[in-house]
Amino acid sequence: MRTYQFDVVIIGSGAGGGTLAYALAPTGRRLLVIERGQAVPSEPENWSPEAVWRDLRYRATDRWRDDRGDEFVPYTHYGIGGNTRYWGSVLYRLRREDFGTLAHVDGVSPAWPIGYDDLAPYYERAERLYQVHGAVGDDPTEPPREAYPHPPIPHTTDMTRIIDELRRLGLHPSPLPLGLIDPGTPGGCQLCNTCNSFPCRIDRKSDADVCCVRPALQHETVTLWTGALAHRLHTSPDGTRVEAVEVERAGERLRIEAPLIVVACGAVNSAALLLRSASPHHRHGLGNSSGLVGRRYMAHLATMMQGFHPLRKNSSVFQKTVAINDYYLRGPHSPFPLGQIQAQGRTHGVMAQVVGQTMVPGIPRWAYEAWVARGVDWLAMSEDLPHVDNRVTIDDDGRIRLSYRPNNVAAHDRLVGEARRLLRRLGFWVVVAHSHRNKNTTHQCGTLVFGHDPATSVLDPFCRSHDVPNLFVVDASFFPSSAAVNPGLTIIAQALRVADHLTSAGVGTAAAGVTATTVPQGTLR
Ligand SMILES: Cc1cc2nc3c(=O)[nH]c(=O)nc-3n(C[C@H](O)[C@H](O)[C@H](O)COP(=O)(O)OP(=O)(O)OC[C@H]3O[C@@H](n4cnc5c(N)ncnc54)[C@H](O)[C@@H]3O)c2cc1C
């Protein structure tokens, strides 16, 4: 097997891995980013609802199994930038309360080993790096903070009318924080209706490829390998450190050695990689002395909702500019948190058809087009609670099995009920709701929880393995709780925090608790 050597290997180039590569690039260390997918080509299909929603052109092609062994297509993407290429770029900070224990209808959301104030400076940097647009003051759940780096995206006329009405109902609608590049300017983001779930053909959505991977590659010490799948991590004979990553690239198995190895494959694939890296010293998976690798998987409880009025055409193109956080910490008739309601990008006829035909077959496309032209789209999102039986495992044939039953369903049902009532009060005649339920892997997190105690967590508060000191995991895996806002900005902020920690401790040096590189770096041995 051919062997290469670098100072740092980062496996995965999404929100966590891409951001970490960006932050470590100026340190001059020889850094290799291993990415199983390819660059997303700039092509007309980027903005084609048929290509994205009917043909699943950019979706991962592997099939996972659920707890019953039934196959499903995970809602995830492989490629440079990971899932951020397809995200809606709603970039929220967690609320201060999310870092403490929080009682919910169905149980308790556990505390984080760090507080809001630990992450606040990194949130600020993350917002600058990903060019977040927003405004302070309207959101009742937002902790005191400095101004956003960019002003909020203006609401369309139709959304302004809805927001005025929401205020009259006593609610506090607030601008949705969005990472967009030069919106509304020539050459900037066009504020189009193909943002969430589509890759941006003109690279004006703030994603990990555009904001981080490409700038990182300007440094000659940074190398990116695409089409490179990490199969397993190999430890030293005594099991105390990771020595190498075994990678498959262009049909060849390669061994990549580095004193510092960072796993950033996304919450499901990172857990899978550690489980696949079992060895005599780590029988139940690498870094798994707690038994928690792969466990406590979470995903938000999310329901797409559409208010429909037969006589009102929705003239908005970019309508995803507002959120309602009034029920985030407690519901109107309940002392418990319910979650968030946020405006969504416009539903296209084909998207509605793909979902609708699974429920009522035979409805023609024009009917869906007429329907969505008169609809306003929303997302109701509630916190999922961790449970040890919600977990990633590896089947005997090597396939991923995701055993998952959502928690906190009662709170989510109440949130959907409140959203439905609100939409009816706004004058919509019909409200339709759809949820992917336990197959929605877009906000996956929590499979390698961070904490102070090695008995109850996999990673320490800087995302370093408790068991293997030169192994870090920098992606959505570390979340002890899922909160009820989108996870991306928190993944990015923590990646910047880990980068600072690695840099101040001396990346790839004995000071970081890892062995110094003594051979020419990035070389073939
Ligand atoms: C349609 C959609 C919309 C979303 N909208 C939002 C939003 O508006 N706001 C928000 O905050 N979040 C949003 N999310 C979620 C957000 O994209 C994820 O939370 C975030 O990207 C997770 O970051 P990550 O670093 O954990 O993983 P990812 O970004 O998924 O990156 C993981 C990377 O690792 C690579 N990889 C995996 N396994 C291997 C392997 N074995 N070897 C080599 N490479 C590997 C993958 O190809 C991928 O590039 C959305 C997600 C989707 C799918």
Task: Please describe what this structure looks like.
There is one protein chain. The protein has helices spanning 15-24, 49-54, 116-129, 157-168, 208-216, 267-276, 349-359, 365-373, 409-425, 488-505, and strands at residues 2-5, 8-11, 31-34, 64-66, 71-72, 102-104, 107-109, 132-133, 173-175, 178-179, 222-225, 228-235, 242-249, 252-257, 260-263, 301-308, 322-324, 340-343, 375-382, 391-394, 400-403, 430-434, 471-473, 523-524. With 525 residues, it is of the alpha/beta class. It has a single domain, classed as FAD/NAD(P)-binding domain (3-Layer(bba) Sandwich), CATH 3.50.50.60. Strand 6 and strand 7 (107-109) form a beta hairpin. The protein is globular. Mean pLDDT is 94; it is low at 510-525. Residues 11-17, 34-37, 75, 78-79, 82-84, 86-91, 196-197, 229-230, 264-267, 269, 273, 442-443, 475-476, 486-488, 491 line the site of flavin-adenine dinucleotide (FAD).
CATH class: Alpha Beta
What small molecules does this complex bind? Answer: flavin-adenine dinucleotide
What is the number of domains? 1
* CATH architecture verdict: 3-Layer(bba) Sandwich
Name its key features.
525 residues; alpha/beta; FAD/NAD(P)-binding domain; six-stranded antiparallel β-sheet; five-stranded mixed β-sheet; binds flavin-adenine dinucleotide
